[in-house]
Structure formats: structure tokens, C-alpha cells
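hiii, so i know i said id send this last week but things got crazy w the move. better late than never?? heres the sequnce for the chain we talked about at the cafe, plus the structure i predicted for it. fair warning i was half asleep when i ran it
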Amino acid sequence: MHFKWNYQAPTPEERQAAKELGEKLNMSPTLAHLLIRRGITTESAAKRFFRPQLADLINPFLMKDMDVAVDRLNDAMGRKERILVYGDYDVDGCTAVALVYRFLQQFYSNIDYYIPDRYNEGYGVSKQGIDYAKETGVKLIIILDCGIKAIEEIAYAKQQGIDFIICDHHVPDEVLPDAVAILNPKREDDSYPFKHLCGCGVGFKFMQAFAKNNGIPFSRLIPLLDFCAVSIAADLVPVIDENRILAFHGLKQLNQNPSIGLKAIIDICGLNNREISMSDIIFRIGPRINASGRMENGRESVDLLVEKDFGTARGKAKHIDEYNEQRKDIDKQMTEEANQIVARLESQKHRSSIVLYDENWKKGVVGIVASRLTEIYFRPTVVLTRDGEFATGSARSIAGFDIYSAIKSCRDMLVNFGGHTYAAGLTLRWDRVKEFCQRFQKYVEEHIQPELTEAILNIDAQIDFKDITKKLHNELKKFSPFGPGNMKPLFCTTDVYDYGTSKVVGREQEHIKLELVDSKSSAVVNGIAFGQSASARYIKSKRSFDIAYTIEDNIFKHNAVQLQIEDIRPAEDEELS
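okay and structure toks below
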């Protein structure tokens, strides 16, 4: 894939500001410039950014309905009512259920948890789940990471004498369910100052409020922050403001003293004895938690996350790892099939979106396939499969385009839909799929900016190899945790050469292991370019080229760095624009 590089050299004013800020922080102007680009222009703001404080978390009672939710939970405990903690089957839902269940279980025993079956019950609140609650004597359901659109289901629960507290972060409709309390910072009538919490984050705020109301020290919540970090990373919410605080301290917990279930997953992943990052969660921990909900039932993931015995937890983690291997095989097969369909559809090249459907695809994996296609083709993508009379599926978007609004524009033909700007789920009648394709694609054509469908790399700074030091790398680590809103800094170096020892590696010879030099120093710099073996011939031709990369730890050499190369282009290409 050919990327367009977007780089804006600092203006003289920005250079001066970076120099002054760098002097105050004892930091290079290059790094100070990275702060300024993130909107951090003062010494005090930089200190808050580099050292996020739990004391700076927002007062949870600023969230609408929080006082009502806490009162209802206190009443339930006072009356010894049975409580059910209910959540979605993805990482965010499972970690949210584990967090709330584990915290409340310390103070109250008449409590249970429930994860709906993706295949038998579908997304969100199900009648089957409410019937289970009724049969087991539940009077209060705390629902996490879903429920904001469950108007009929919550009305049905009310008829059974069951109350609901909703903790959700998906975009609400104009009409809200008849729940006792609805905690959702995206409510139009909610003035909570941070709108980007994930479902687990909303659950955490509820527990923070409950603890505050009952005189429980905040320190009792700290061991559960690892769940917040996992959900923030896996749900790809912005890692800014309150999420940055939760992710920073959650990662600290995950690295120093993780929950038993997460420790077992870390062990199975082979992440022991190294510092776990947000990308480790996205690519290794998160997919395993997701796998049981995709292949069988998400309850198995919660069983693991609340487990107190490490031996038992490791057995459960191994089982979930097997699900993940099955999931990877199906995911690969479905992505290949989807790619073949896109390749056959000549018209797709000229479209601003992709909508694919196949009645044989596995429902639990369509979201991953939608993500893959979005990454490959830089188009908002919907992938659907058949479920009886209905089509059900997932949508994923590209930066800058609101796919939730695109789906909402077709709401008159949808049975159900929900989500947020970059990810959504939907259900419609199978016989209306073609009509949906046309309507959805027409909306995207009319609302998307053409440049959004270009593969663009946003370069933070242009540097030379002599600038790449261990000190620079250590300073860059302070910018973590990384994610949307605070992406890992991307650098470029121009006119670099193969040292003569670069080679193609990988099971299918798909990667390049690089040893490079530039014209400004004699130091040899190591790099890895995943999936870019097509550039190997040019690299070995002894001509110069430009690289865009992030700076990483070299796991093979102690105290050394390695470049992870995102793109390689001939030096004679157009100037950076």
C-alpha cells in the first residue's frame, strides 16, 4: 500500500515555543514540539500529562442519575435483594462486569453475573436474560456496556418487578428506556465534563460513587484499575483526560500486580517479564478475552476474570487461548473471502464505502473482518451475515467519518442498531440487505471528504539517525499510554541506505529485517518492516529511500532501540506534503 505522508514542519514561532518549553522541562525541542502539537503548552500542563493523578479523576456525582443509581444500589443491599450484573460479550462488557461484580462481592454476597449468548440471544438485553433474572429471584439488574436502546426489554423487566441501572457509553436515542437510572455521559441532558468513557469506565465511575457514598476508601478500587486499562485499549476510546488517568494507573496495576485472571492471560500470551503496553492489550490480551464470546459464550471470559485461584485461572486461560486460535483461522478465511469479493467488484474501487454480506459467515467474527477491510481499503465498511430471517453485522469506520450517523440515516429499515462514531452494530431483515447497501453507500458518498479515504501517515517530526538515542526513547515512553487522541509519535528520516545486511524474514517471507545508515552518521540502526517485503528489491539496490517509523525497545538487544517501520518510499518520490 502506498501511503501519502503528511508532515508540517514547525513554524519559527513553534520552534521558539518548543525551545522555551523544552528548557523548562529539561527536554529536547523535538519532544517539546510533540507536546505543543498535543495542545500542551505550559509546564504545569506537561506535568499533569506526564504524571496523571488519580486525585484528578472527575467527581462521579457530576454524572446525571448517579445519585439515584447509588441510592437504588444501597436500597437493594439494605433489603438483601438479589442483584444481577449483566454485560455485553466483548472485552469492554466482560471487563466491566468483572470490575463491578468483584468490587461489590467484597461487601455483598447475594449477587450474580450474566453475559448473553451472542448466537442465541444477540446483542444487549435479552428476554431470555430477564427470564433468567426472574427465575433466580433478581430484583435489580446493573447492565454494563449496553442497554441504552433496550426500551421494550426493560419495560418487560419492569412488568416482572425487576429494576434496571444502565451503565452505557453508546449514543442514546431521543427516547430512553424506563430504567431507575441511566448513567451515560453521551446523554444530551448530561453535563458530565468527559464524554469518552468506555462501558467499563462508566461502571468504574458508578463504583467510585458507591464507595464515596458509603465511606469505602478509594484505595479499595485501585486493584481493579487493570480492567479499565484493558477496556480502554481494546475499545479504542480516546486516551485523553480521564481515560488517560485510568489507563495510566491501570497499566501500572497490570504490570505490577494484575488480577489473577489477567495474570493467567499474560502468562498464556508469553508477556511475562516485560512491560505490558496498550498495544499488547489490543493485539494479545484483548483478542483472547473476546474469543470466548465470538466462538462460544462470553461468560467464560468473566469466569476467568473473577477467578481467585491462579491454577484454575490458567486452565481457563488456556481454554480461551484455544478459542482464540479457532477465531484466528475463521477470521483469516473470512477476510480472504471478503478481499476476493472486493477484488471482483470493480465498482468498489470507485465507491467511498464497502458493504459485504454472506449468509455463511460466522456472526462472532464479522466485526474483526470489518476492521481488517477498513485497514486495507480505507473505506467505512459494513459486514453482514444471515441469522434466520435477519441480517446482522458490524460496521467500522475510518478516522474523521461518523459511521453511526450513516447507519442511523437508514434507521427506518433497521430492526436494531447501536454504537458510536467509529464502530456500530446493526440488524435488518435479510430481504432488505440490497436496499440497505444502496442507501448506506449513497449517504457515505454525500457526506465523506474524499481525502479521508486516502492512506495517510501523519508524521510528527523529521529527525536524523544521530538523534535516535536511548535517552530519546526513554523520554518518548513518558508520552504513553498511547491510543486515539495520543498516538505513538511517528518520525521520518530521509535518504537512508541499506547497510548491506537487511534481509527478508517471516514464515511466508513477508517482513524485512533492516540494518540501515543515513548520510549524517555512521551508526547502524536496526528496524523491522512488517508485511513490506515488496520493498526488499528496491532496498537491496543500494539506492537511498525514506522511512516513516516509531521507535521501540529492541527485544533482542538489552538497552537498545529498534525502528518499527510503517512505510518505505524511494527518496526521489515527491516532497513531504
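btw The mean pLDDT is 91. thought thatd interest u
miss u guys!!
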